[in-house]
Design the sequence.
């Protein structure tokens, strides 16, 4: 019965630990929901969408309901042409008015339609910029996630070095007690063991800092703890020609600058419409009521519908329209320069990243072989030390060689993954 309870306890512990493993997909999904930069970028895109209305483009009428009231107390002394004199002392007068007024621009040279198209493009730009921020955040999350994996693998390598050092200490103690090894070998073995233990403590701190970094990207409390996957998957094979061919049509930065050129063209066209006449339809229903305490007219009430129009032809506005057109042309020119510069930068970065990817692949393959050799070398050195056929210094050098090889191997795997992630970010395929 006790064995059954122990088995169930172990199974429950294993299940709990498994539940605490954070997968990369879970990390990315959490960031997409909680990351503050993404939330702000989403709001910016939503603002562009909310602004994209026919009313904001000036295509819809405005209707206002207005009301007014006035009370006056007057002393009146009137003399008519017939010689009649009329005097009122402290005459009170009350005037009340109300109206529903409509104003609608029916024609402005087509400017309102250009403005609506510009708002469409601004909304599309907002979505592209949001996509860029999402890709940037995903890249940072992936890099931070696999950095934790890398640091944990480094800790495994350090723990393996500790195991070798403990074995060295045991061998040195046995040899010293048997009189076959000098005490300095034993002391050096213990020193090397302590150094590796110190490295393990420092590595634990590095791991905790890496977890906090990822938590920050996920928009969650930095004290949240979790496990990550134990290895870095490397199964990506880029097609250089395909990537170069599709970059200009896939990269979100390039697409954003293309969209900015479209917006700049519409802004220029919009300003050019400043030379066009405008016609506004005005109409409404008006009511006015005036009451006097004395006089020939005690009450005057006016009400009824009114309709009219206003034609405005721009003749001179101090050169403002010309200035706006000149500025719009310069902004369009700058947008075109920005696009070409971005294309150049993205193509350069793509080529550099492809070169880095290929280099990391080659380095990783060499280091895999080198790591196997270093592991075999340390194991042979330990065995030779046990047989008294080598010195502690030789074992120390073999051990250092193995630890350094393991560190390089881990870093090459991580660098290769980062290069892969950057390539996918450039192609907007993360």
Sequence:
């Amino acid at each position: 019965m006790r064995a059954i309870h122990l088995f169930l306890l172990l199974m429950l512990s294993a299940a709990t630990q498994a539940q605490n493993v954070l997968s990369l997909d879970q990390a990315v999904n959490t960031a997409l929901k909680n990351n503050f930069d993404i939330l702000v970028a989403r709001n910016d895109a939503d603002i562009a969408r909310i602004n994209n209305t026919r009313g904001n483009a000036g295509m819809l009428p405005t209707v206002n309901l207005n009301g007014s009231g006035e009370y006056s107390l007057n002393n009146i002394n009137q003399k008519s042409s017939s010689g009649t004199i009329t005097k009122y002392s402290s005459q009170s007068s009350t005037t009340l008015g109300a109206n529903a007024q409509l104003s609608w621009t029916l024609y402005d040279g087509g400017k309102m339609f250009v403005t609506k198209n510009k708002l469409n493009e601004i909304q599309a730009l907002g979505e592209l910029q949001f996509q860029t921020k999402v890709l940037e955040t995903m890249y940072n999350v992936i890099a931070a996630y696999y950095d934790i994996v890398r640091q944990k693998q480094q800790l495994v390598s350090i723990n393996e070095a500790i195991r070798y050092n403990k074995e060295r200490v045991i061998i040195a103690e046995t040899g010293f007690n048997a009189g076959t090894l000098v005490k300095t070998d034993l002391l050096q073995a213990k020193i090397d063991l302590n150094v590796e233990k110190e490295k393990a403590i420092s590595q634990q701190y590095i791991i905790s800092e890496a977890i906090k970094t990822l938590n920050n990207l996920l928009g969650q409390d930095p004290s949240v703890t979790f496990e990550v996957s134990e290895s870095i998957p490397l199964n990506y094979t880029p097609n250089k020609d395909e990537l170069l061919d599709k970059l200009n049509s896939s990269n979100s930065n390039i697409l954003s600058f293309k969209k900015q050129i479209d917006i700049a063209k519409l802004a220029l066209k919009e300003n050019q419409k400043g030379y066009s006449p405008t016609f506004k339809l005005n109409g409404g229903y008006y009511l006015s009521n005036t009451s006097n305490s004395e006089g020939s007219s005690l009450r005057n009430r006016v009400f009824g519908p009114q309709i009219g129009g206003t034609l405005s032809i721009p003749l001179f506005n101090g050169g403002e329209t010309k200035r706006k057109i000149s500025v719009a042309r310069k902004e369009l020119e700058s947008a075109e320069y920005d696009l070409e510069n971005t294309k150049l930068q993205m193509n350069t970065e793509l080529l550099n990243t492809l070169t880095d990817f290929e280099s990391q692949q080659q380095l990783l393959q060499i280091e895999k072989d080198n790591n196997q050799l270093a592991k075999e070398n340390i194991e042979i050195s330990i065995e030779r030390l046990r047989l008294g056929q080598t010195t502690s210094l030789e074992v120390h050098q073999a051990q250092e060689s193995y630890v350094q090889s393991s560190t390089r191997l881990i870093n090459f795997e991580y660098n290769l993954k980062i290069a892969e992630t950057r390539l996918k970010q450039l192609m907007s395929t993360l």
